[in-house]
Amino acid sequence: MRLDIVTLFPDFFKSPLSSGLLGKALAKQIAEVHLVNPRDFATDKHRRVDDEPYGGGAGMLMKPEPIFAAVESLPVLPRRDVILMTPQGATINQQMLVELATGYDQLAIVCGHYEGVDERVLNLVTREVSLGDFVLTCGEIPALALINGVVRLLPGTVGNSESLKVESFESGLLDYPQYTRPPEFRGWKVPEVLLSGNHAEIARWRREQQIERTRSRRPDLFAHWLKNSPFTL
Questions:
Q1: Which residue from 41, 90, 164, 195 lies 20 to 30 Å from 110 (Cα-Cα)?
Q2: Burial class (CB in 10 A: 0-12, 13-18, 19+), 66
Q3: What are the residue ranges in the chain where pLDDT is below 50?
Q4: CA–CA separation, 224 vs 118, rounded Å?
């Protein structure tokens, strides 16, 4: 997969993109990331990428011309999504990450700044995406979260692909509690069922824990799962 990041701060991505599983995936060319700075496409002598909003108001807006020029400078793969990171977009969830990882060959991600972008930029993008119902200083942070979530789903990134099938949100439920050695730590013991070797009982316990954990921690998610689950409790 090709990932093109339109950003005023390319250096923001250098350390995260070279660390952990994400760094290994890029080193193995499971995905490739290209950084493009819209300031390089500004045509005035001051290389301005922002200006005051018409009608007045606080703050500055990103100008449309450098963003359009930056995106239009990119190669176009057959299955491409042009994404604007904005608090007004659809909130990232696991279903969206799966869709992006399996349905596209190229993601062009525009990182917003200041008070946002000129509304005409929406004619360029095909999807608006948000990290949540809050405002950050830049679009690079949610863009990095999106990239991480997508790349980890690409074949070869995670060593044991089976682990991707049982984690939180993949089944509509939160993940079950997990333990490792020692069997007792500061008086807290590992549940006996996990030490029993009875795989059927372990699977049943884990499913029960997923349901109960989702019910207590995320009633909204539980209600959605209950509505769409073919099973009854």
A1: 164
A2: buried
A3: none
A4: 36
pLDDT given for residue 142 in this prediction: 97
* 39 and 141 Cβ atoms separated by less than 8 Å: no
- Same CATH topology for 2-151 and 166-228? no
Give me the pLDDT at residue 4, please: 98
Q: How far apart are CA 35 and CA 8, in angstroms?
A: 9
Please give the pLDDT value at position 230.
66
Q: Residue 194: what are its φ and ψ, rounded to 5°?
A: -75, -15
pLDDT computed for residue 61 by the predictor: 95
Three-state SS string across 22-53, please?
A: HHHHHHCCCCEEEEECHHHHCCCCCCCCEECC
Residue 164 confidence (pLDDT): 61
Domain boundaries, the chain: 2-151, 166-228
Q: How much is the pTM?
A: 0.87
**DSSP per-residue letters across 43-108:** -STT---EEPPTT--SS-EE-HHHHHHHHHTS---SSEEEEEEEEEEEEP-HHHHHHHHHH-SEEE
Residue 171 has what pLDDT? 79
Q: Is the domain defined by 2-151 classed in CATH 3.90.600.10?
A: no
- Orientation of helix 140-151 relative to helix 20-27, angle to 10°: 70
